[in-house]
Each structure stands twice: as structure tokens, then as C-alpha cells.
Amino acid sequence: MTDAALPHRAASASLRQRLARRGVDATTLLVLPAALTILGLFVYPFLEGLVLSLLPKTGGTFSNYAKFFSDPFLYQTIPTTLGIAVPATLANILLSVPVALRVRKMKRQRFLTTILVIPITLGTVLVAEGLLNYLGPQGWLNRTLITLHLISHPVRLVHNYWGVFWSLVISGFPFTFLLTLSYVTGIDPSLERAASTLGAGPRARFRTILLPLMASGLAITFCLSFVQAFAVFPSAVLVGSPAGSTRVISIAAFQAAYETYDDSLASSIAMIMAAIQLVIVVLVLAGRGFLYRGPASGGKG
Amino acid sequence: MRDISTGESSILDRIWILAVWTFVGFFILNLIGVVGAVLVDSFATRWLGTWLPTGFTWHWYLDAWQEFQLGKILTVTFEVVGAVVLISGVLGVPAAYALSRRDFPGKQAVMLLFLLPLLVPPMTIGIPLATVLYRFGVGGTIWGVILANLVPSLPFVILITIPFIDQIDQRVEAAARVFGANTFKLFVYVLMPLLTPGILAALLLVLVRTIAMFELTFLTSGPTSQTLVVALYYAVDAAGVRAGQSVDAMAMIYMATTLIWLLIALRFVNPTQIVGRQATPAGHDA
Questions:
Q1: How many degrees, rounded to 5, is the angle at CA B276 between CA B152 and CA A284?
Q2: Is A291 in contact with A216 (CB distance < 8 Å)?
Q3: Interatomic CA distance for residues B198 and B26, integer angstroms
Q4: Residue ranges of the domains in chain B?
Q5: How high is the pLDDT of residue B238?
Q6: What one-character-per-residue DSSP string does A239-256 give?
Q7: Contacts of A129 in chain B (CB under 8 A)
């Protein structure tokens, strides 16, 4: 950009000076090792996987994809996964917004945020083991419900759809909450005060000030948590019923790669996973284009 | 006209506030239940059909240590985590510096390159990555696990460090240059001391995330390169083969290793930074 503005000097300057004027010098090259690492470990395997998915063990170029979409055992995993991931993500976001709006007014948020970051840190495997104990037929939750005479026999809460759903809420709600909180605390409180001075009640303030300013951040939060929920794997195996109601697409991909050793089919399923995630993210972010995007914060960068 | 300054005084609003806090309390109660059930069971002699076990014992921890060869697994875990933290720091901090200080053609594309590995779930990239690693002969080895874990860790270090570098006044560097410091001296004597809190925060978060990273390690590890969380998965998956208390004791050892580092990390960072890159501290205008 700069060298176009300085045509005379650019012509006489050395290559090094011309590059430096565009922002490329020795310091810029520091980005190269990291960029090459990610190219080699992320972009290359992805492209390799795409090529591999088009080189099936038997049949023509697209026979893996044809196989996936004609075998109900495989293509049924898409509605199964969406049926778990979409409700869990929506529930997490709908619960996060009111809690985040309350918590931002607290003086000491640190204690609550610390407690909530624990399940994210521990990860889904430990949460799954905890749920097996806690929600099991002899677990504390069933005992409490029986003691309260809400149920007469233990309810089956794990090894089915709900086990996976609760596992996604336990580790997903803190994630969406902390993201939402970081967006909400970025909104300048004086905007709300101004609205309040002009006579807007809490509901009107939420609808006309907070929600439009948050919407863009909520769209990103939705994308991030949906993508994670869509790739759910350990809890679908451990607290779900991996052969039945929670046979998610990750399980199908894993079985193709490590049980039938069909790398080509496994790559195809991984590509289908990536494509579905991409479609949802693009749809949500395209919708975001209609929303307000601009400064929402005062002095906060 | 309604009271505008304290518009939250109506009964409905109070019920709403109460409902929100009830939900938070209920969530935390269940969370304590989930973690507490593992904790109590790991000390239980026998726990069937009662609120609490009939007796308590330590011996499941000894059993778990021997049965699951936890000594070996912990060594592998810390070798992997140490290598991942070191490599992502050495590669990530200079890259963050370049991205913060220079505006070059294609910068947007490079930023996208570092954002994508954080957005794509590990299960999606893990299967093609494992295929490639196995083809190059590192699949199943400890190096395969380290390389796989770099995929989310390196971009994470870069994105966390950039705002910290943005905060350092460029005039400090200019002054060092005037006094004849070269880029290397600038890094060692000026930037590193100023950046220590930021780098420490980023590396501690990578440490915690790598200990808990299940999917990538699971897909690329072999029998000799399992980390603690993968070993725990296999133990839970094979429930019934070993005593439940023994598996829970192992879960507690995993939990302790993770939480110690989390507590140290939380001395330097805000919990919201663990889920993503947060806005830079107040007072800094981008």
C-alpha cells in the first residue's frame, strides 16, 4: 500500500527496503516457524484427508461419500448428533445470558468463575465418570428424588440420550457462560444508564440495548460451543449408548479408522463432519451480518 | 410514570432474580455431586444402596497406582506436557511479536491460519492428523502425541500473547534500539522481562489444556505413549474389569494433577481466558 504512494523512491530502493516499507523485515519472519508448523500439522493433514477420502479402497472417486449417504447406520449419525448438539448448545446459551447479566453486576465474580472453570478444565472424561456415579441407579440424585417421593424407582439417567445431554450441559454451560460474561462485561454500562435516564425499564433496556450489542458475541459463542458439541466423543461412549441413541458421527469416524482400519472412509466421515460444522458456522455468521457490529465498549479495548 | 432509576423493584423482577440464582445454585450443587461422588467412592470400602459408604480406606489409591502403572503414565504425561509447553512457547512468542508489531500483506490470512485450529474440534482434525502421523512413522509414539497437541496449543499461545505485546509501548523498544540493542538483545533484556506475566499465563493455560486434552492424544497415542486422561478413558470404558473404586482413585489422581496447575494458573489469569482470548486489561485502547 505504502509503496504505491511513493512510486519514485520505491523504484530506486533495494528489494529489502521495499519489503520493509510493506511491513516485511526480519521481525516479520519470526512468524514463519509457527506458521509452517500449523501448515504442516493442520492444513496439510486436512488436505491429505480430503484427498484420501477421494481414494476409496474399492469403487470410484466418490464411493465413500455415496456409501455414507446410502447406509442408514452411517448417515443416521448426522441427525443423531444434531439432535444432541443443537438442543444442548441452545440450552447452554439460553441459561448463560440471564446468569451473565446478573453476575456482571457482582463485585466478586472471581469465586463463581473459578468454580465454573473447573468442569471445563477437568474435561469430559472425568465428568462422564462423575455422572456415572452421581446419576446412576444408586447415585445421589436418584436417592434424593426417591427420598423426596418424586419417584418410586430409580430413573435411568445414564447410558442413554440424557446422560450425554447432561454431560454437555455440565461442561458446556460454564464454557458458554464465561464467553458470554466476557462479552457482557465489555458493554459500556453508561449506555444502559443513558437508556434508564430516558425512561427504559429493565426489559426494554435488555431488548433495545443489551441484546443488539450482545447478539454478535452470542453468535460467535453459539458457533464455538456448537462445534465442540457436534464433535462430542468420550461422553457419547461412556455415558451414552454408543451403539444406539447416541451413536454420534465421531463414533462412526472412530470405528472406521480404528476398528475396520478403513482410513479412506474415516477421512470421508471427518470431512463430512467438518463440512456440516462449516455450514452451520457460515449460516450463523452470515446472520450476524444483519446485526449491529461496532463499538460497544467505552474505554475498554 | 414508573420509577426509572430502580426499575428492578417489582415482584416479577425479584422472582426472576431469585430464579437465576436458584439455577446457579442448582448447577453448582450438581457439579459438587458429580465430583464428590468420584471423591467419596475412591475412599469407599463398600458402597451399595446407601447414602455414604460403609467404611473408608486408602488402599484403592495403592491399587490404582500398581494396576494402571500410574508412575509410567504420569512420566509420559509430563514429558508430553513439558515438550508441548516448551515448543509452543519458543515458536509462539516470536510469532505473536511479529503479528503484534508488523502490518504485512497476508496478515489476515496468517491470523486465520492460527484461529482455525482453535475453532475446528479436535475430533475432526484428529483423524486425518493421526493418519498422516502414522504414515510418517510417528503415530503411536510420544512424538506423535506431542506433535498432535501442538495443533491447538501453538495458536493458543500466540493469540493469548498478542494483547500482552500490544500493551508494551513501542517507544521502550525504540529507546533500546537507539542505545544499540539488536533484535536478540531487545528480546532478552527488554521484552522478556516485560512479557513474563503474559507468557507465564499463556504457558500455564497450555499446560492445563494439554493435560486435559483427550481426543488428539487418544487418536495418536499407542500403548507406551498414553497420557493420564487417555488411560482414565480406557479404565472407565472397561468398567467392570476392575473395581469401580480403583478407577475413581485414578480419576482423583488425574483431577489432582489438573487442578494443582489450574490453581497456579488462576493466580495469573482471569478464568474467562481459559475459554478463549479475552479483551486486554482495561485502560488499553487498541
A1: 95
A2: yes
A3: 35
A4: 11-57, 60-275
A5: 85
A6: TS-TTTTT--HHHHHHHH
A7: 38, 232, 236, 247-248, 251
* Nearest-by-CA chain B residue for A28: B98
A234 Cα to chain B: minimum distance (Å): 8
Higher pLDDT pick, A124 / B271: A124
Please give, rounded to a whole number of angstroms, the shortest distance from the CA of B105 to a CA of chain A: 7
Q: Give yes or no for a contact between B248 and B36, defined as CB atoms under 8 angstroms apart.
A: no
| Cell numbers found for residue B71 | 508412575
Q: How confident is the model at residue A299 (pLDDT cuts 50, 70, 90)?
A: very low
Instruction: For residue B186, give Cα distances in angstroms to B168, B177, B189.
Output: 13, 8, 6
Question: What is the distance between the alpha carbons of residues B148 and B217, in angstroms, rounded to a whole number?
Answer: 7
A143 and B102 within 8 Å at the Cβ level: the answer is: no
Specify the fold of B60-275: MetI-like fold (1.10.3720)
Share the mean pLDDT of chain B.
86
Residue B238's φ and ψ, nearest 5 degrees, are: -95, 35
Fold of A63-288: MetI-like fold (1.10.3720)
Mark yes or no for CB contact A126/B254 under 8 Å: yes
What is the DSSP secondary-structure string of B245-282?
A: HHHHHHHHHHHHHHHHHHHHHHTTS-THHHHSPPPPPT
- At residue B2, the 3 state secondary structure works out as coil
Residue type, A182: S
| CA pair distance A154, A134, nearest whole angstrom | 12
The answer to whether B79 and B142 have CB atoms below 8 angstroms apart is: yes
Q: Quick one: pLDDT at residue B1?
A: 39
Three-state secondary structure readout of A76-116: CHHHHHHHHHHHHHHHHHHHHHHHHHHHCCCCCCHHHHHHH
Q: Please tell me the distance from the alpha carbon of residue A237 to that of residue A132, in angstroms, as a whole number.
A: 12
Q: Does B253 touch chain A if contact means CB atoms closer than 8 Å? A: no
Nearest one of A260, A258, A253, A274 to A58, comparing CA atoms: A260
For the cut 50, the answer to whether the pLDDT of residue B2 exceeds it is: no
Is residue A9 over pLDDT 80? no
Does residue A184 surpass a pLDDT of 50? yes
pLDDT at A292: 61
State the Cα–Cα distance between residues B264 and B266, nearest whole angstrom: 5
Q: How far B43 CA sits from the closest chain A CA (Å)?
A: 14
Tell me if chain A has a CB within 8 Å of the CB of B15. Answer: no
- CB–CB contacts below 8 A, A to B: 280
Q: Which residues of A touch B102 (CB under 8 A)?
A: 23-25, 27-28
Q: Is B278 on the interface with A (CB under 8 A)?
A: yes
Task: Print burial letters for A129-162: b (CB count within 10 Å at least 16), e (below 16).
Answer: bbbbbbbbeebbbbeeeeeeeeeeebeebbbebb
Domain ranges (residues) in chain A: 2-53, 63-288
* Whether A187 contacts chain B with CB within 8 A: no
